[in-house]
Amino acid sequence: MNFAVPTEAFIMLSMVLFILGAMGVLLRRNAILIFMSVELMLNAANLALVAFARQWGQMNGQLFVFFVMTVAAAEVAVGLALIVAIFRNKRSINIDDLHQMEG
Amino acid sequence: MHNETYPQLVPLLIIIPAIGAFINMFWGAKLGERVSGYVGIAASLLSFIISVLIFSYLSAVHGAASVINAPLGLGSWIRMDSIGLNIPWQFRVDTITAVMLLVVTGVGSLIHIYARGYMHGDPKFGRFFAFLNLFLMFMLLLVTANNFLMMFVGWEGVGLCSYLLIGFWWDKRGATGWRNANAARKAVIVNRVGDFGLLLSMFLIFWTFGTFDYYKPGEVANVPYTLYTNGYITAEQAKKGDILAVNPAAESQAAETHGDAHGETHGAHSKPARETLDNSQFAPSRLGVFGQTEYLMSLPEGSPERVINVGGLELDFSVMLFLIVIFMLVGVTAKSAQIPLFVWLPDAMAGPTPVSALMHAATMVTAGVFLLIRANVFLDHAPEARAIIALVGALTALMGGYIGMGQWDVKRVLAYSTVSQLGFMVAAVGLGAYVAAMFHLVTHAIFKACLFLGSGSVIHGVEHGHHHVHAHAHGHGDDHHDAHDEEDSFDPQDMRNMGGLARRMPITYWTYIFATFALAGLFPFAGFWSKDEILADAWHLGFDKGNPIGYIVLGILLLAAAFTAFYMWRQVQMIFHGEPRSEAAANAPESTLWMTVPLMVLAFLSLVGGFINVPKGAPFHGMFKDYEFKHFLESAVPHVTVSPSLYFNWGLALGATFIAFAAIFFAHSIYAGNKAVRGTARRDPLEFVPSAKPIWLLANARMHWDNIYFAVIENPFNRIGKFLADVVDWRFLHDYFHDVVIKKGYDGVGTLLSKPFDKGIIDGAVNGVAWLFKQFSSSLRLVQTGYVRVYAVALLLGVVAVVVVMVLPLLQNG
Predict the structure, then answer these.
(1) Inter-axis angle of helices B506-520 and B650-671, to 10 degrees?
(2) In this structure, are B60 and B129 located in the same domain?
(3) What residues of chain A lie within 8 A of the CB of B785, using their CB?
């Protein structure tokens, strides 16, 4: 099957996006930015799933993506609420301020 | 006239005194003297009425015995079916029991009435009657039992009551209280020795027979006699013991009644079938102990059934029987005050006088004689043991009489007299004269109770006289009954303080004289008949059968009879005749009716009591039935029928009477008038006769029996006890073993355990483990930084690692 854009390109983009997201999660201190980076990683995975679905002509990948998006939306709701709660407590959303669990 | 249900009343004999004792024990103090006295007397009199009913029944049915189970389902006592052990609460009503019942309840009732007067004013009045009723209950249990174990319960029970009543005044001030308590303890300790013997005897009985029952229900004790009284055999056949014989008259009569459809019953008592009377319905091993004895002794010696295996020894049955009877004798020597265990009885006089009369003269001390009479079948088949019993009894009779001659205390004289008379009874049993022993038991109970109650009346009078004088001298105090608490040197029981009381106390005097004549054996008082029968049996055994025991016992008993008459007349002279030797005696009043009425009844019985068993050919014998008492006992004493009836032995009777009179005159010549006590030291006139002095002093010192016991048993015992306490217990066990070995050793082991072991090893191990974990965790905790980033990196690395692990094999394969 021939496509205008080859699947490899999508996978490469997905990889780039995932690495960007992972780097963001690991390196940023702002909780909202980390959160956004997590979304980036999710979407990178979504992209890979859709790309493979197109490659193999099956709907399973697309179906997964819907679930992932739904769960991500829910996660955003919960995650933002957590961040708001943290901010109310700490007057900051810098995650390095949250190290009370230090051993 | 009689009623079949009378024997069923036997359990009431136990229950009624028990209720009386119960009431007085718990409410005696509250009820007051009047009510608690009436409760006690009523319980005793009711028992007496029941005893009379039972007696009337038995005499109507020729002594046909019955066995009564305890009512209300209480019949079962000790039962183990797996080994065939079954000891029930079962009463036996036969003629021996009936005689004992009449003696115990009859004399007992009179003494209860007397005690109502004697104990008047005592602070522990209710308790006294509770104990008396309790005693009555146990004594009745003892005599009505149908097995040895139940008898033993009564035996121990009367021992307990004896202890309680000897020590009744333990709380008197000063040395008297101590003396009373010690006397009670002595009675218990001496009786333990005897009880041990009786227990051994009972163990052997159970080992030999496998049962304790005297007779099983339905078993007949004296088969020939019972067959004869029911008309199945004739008197001659019964005498020969031919139980298989047939009475021709009975045969023809039976045929007639069979022919007549409406055959009238003969009397109220219908005739039992012959096969129920000859014990043929029982297998030999299912018989009671006495039935088994008769059966085993009828087998030839050496037959396998007669061999009893005891601890590896194979003994013949007759040897076993000898051992049983000898151990039983040990029990009897304690309870019935025989040599060598009689020493408690004279001390037992510390109890109140009604107690001395009831228990230590009339009833309890005769329990041993009763037991031997009960076991007459054993004794009959153990002639060697019987010879020993006869000698023990005769020697006791002699010794008791001898010591009695040298005593000052009015009750002590009577106590030794009791020992002596019990010796007569035991000797009679040993001669095989069970009926004579029982006869003497009955008459002795009557006249000795009369003597004791008379002495109590005298003591009471002297005590009152003493307080009368005392009160007048000091002009104050009219409450005589502080009497028991007061401690002074005046002894109201010392005959040296008496004299001339005949004028002050005429009723007591005359009753005392009657009983004295009975005890001395003067014709026609009760003691004459019973003592004469014992002597006649000894004569018969010696002269007619040629048994040397007969001569020996006859000689000893004649001498003892002389002593008896001598010490009794000495006592009468000292108490009643001459001039008063103290102010108290001069002012002694006669006792109240509560006390004198029982005395008069007993004195009357002392006069006529002997006529129940008048021998053939004796004076008066035409007025009474021959040997009525003997015939009454026959159904329960199997071998009586076998020995021929003795005729009155004129020579012996005259000889014995002459000896008694001679002894009385001899005593009279020594003690008459004012000669009873001599000198300022108040000694016995015999002490001024050089030849008689050592003899009298030996009697006065009670033949040193107590000193010998002290030297031989008590002092070594005390020394051993002291050694054990001082050296072994205190110095060795406490000071050395306890303080040194145990304490130091314990300390050492404790130190060893606590320091190196506990602190070192155990604590070290526990702390070491903790230290290890601490080290381990302190390095691990560094991992937990608390920074989310770090965890995220770890997560990422983990995922990478997992991916690598999963992908690598694919790459290798691909």
Answers:
(1) 130
(2) yes
(3) 99, 102-103
Question: Both B756 and B810 in a single domain?
Answer: no
- pLDDT value of position B43: 95
For B788, name the nearest residue in chain A, comparing CA atoms only.
A95
Name all domains of chain A by residue range, CATH numbers in brackets. Answer: 7-97 (1.10.287.3510)
Please judge whether A98 and B788 are an interchain contact, meaning their C-beta atoms are less than 8 angstroms apart: yes
**Quick one: pLDDT band at residue B255, thresholds 50, 70, 90?**
low
Q: How far apart are CA B489 and CA B66, in angstroms?
A: 56
Task: Determine whether the interchain pair B781/A103 forms a contact, defined as Cβ–Cβ distance below 8 Å.
Answer: yes
Chain A residues close to B780, C-beta within 8 Å? 103
Residue B283 lies in a domain: no
Chain B contact for A22 (CB, 8 A cutoff): yes
> Could you list the residue range(s) of the whole structural domain that residue B768 is in?
705-783
- Identify whether residues B22 and B89 lie together within a single domain: yes
Tell me whether strands B90-93 and B313-316 are parallel, antiparallel or unpaired: unpaired
Residues of chain B with Cβ-Cβ distance to A26 below 8 Å are 789, 792-793, 796
Asked if residue B77 and residue B9 are part of one domain, the reply reads yes
In a domain, B190, yes or no: no
Question: A-chain residues within 8 Å CB-CB of B784?
Answer: 101-103
| Domain end call among B111, B128, B146 | B146
Residue A24 forms contact with B (CB below 8 Å): no
10 Å Cβ neighbour count for B162? 27
Average pLDDT over residues B73-93: 84
Distance CA B660, CA B563 (A): 8
Pair (B749, B796) in one structural domain: no
Q: Is residue B214 part of a domain?
A: no
Whether residues B724 and B805 share a domain: the answer is no
Give B751→chain A minimum CA distance, Å.
43
- Give the ipTM: 0.84
> Among all residues of chain A, which has the CA nearest to that of B782?
A103
Q: Which stretch of DSSP H or E encloses residue B565?
A: helix B548-576
**Percent of chain B scored above 90 by pLDDT?**
51
Q: Is B218 helix (H, G, I), strand (E, B) or coil?
A: coil
A19 to chain B: closest CA residue: B796
Nearest CB partner across the interface for A100, out of B783, B786, B789: B786
How many domains is chain B built from? 3
- Distance, in Å, from the CA atom of B607 to the CA atom of B596, rounded to the nearest integer, reads 17
One DSSP character per residue, B457-497 reads HHHHHHHHHHHHHHHHHHT----GGGGGG---S--TTBGGG
Q: Does A78 touch chain B (CB under 8 A)?
A: no
Query: Residue B79 domain-assigned?
Result: yes
Q: Do B804 and B760 sit in the same domain of this protein? A: no
Q: Is A98 part of the contact surface with chain B (CB cutoff 8 Å)?
A: yes
Instruction: Give the residue from B442, B437, B443 showing the smallest Cα distance to B376.
Output: B437
Side-chain half-sphere exposure of A83, counting CA atoms within 13 A? 17
pLDDT tens digit sequence for B725-767? 998 888 888 888 888 888 889 999 999 888 888 888 999 999 9
Kindly state whether residues B756 and B790 are assigned to the same domain: no
Closest residue, chain A, to B792 (C-alpha): A26
pLDDT tens track for B606-623: 999 888 888 877 777 677
pLDDT band at B263 (very low <50, low <70, confident <90, very high): very low
pLDDT bin (cut points 50, 70, 90) of residue B476 is very low
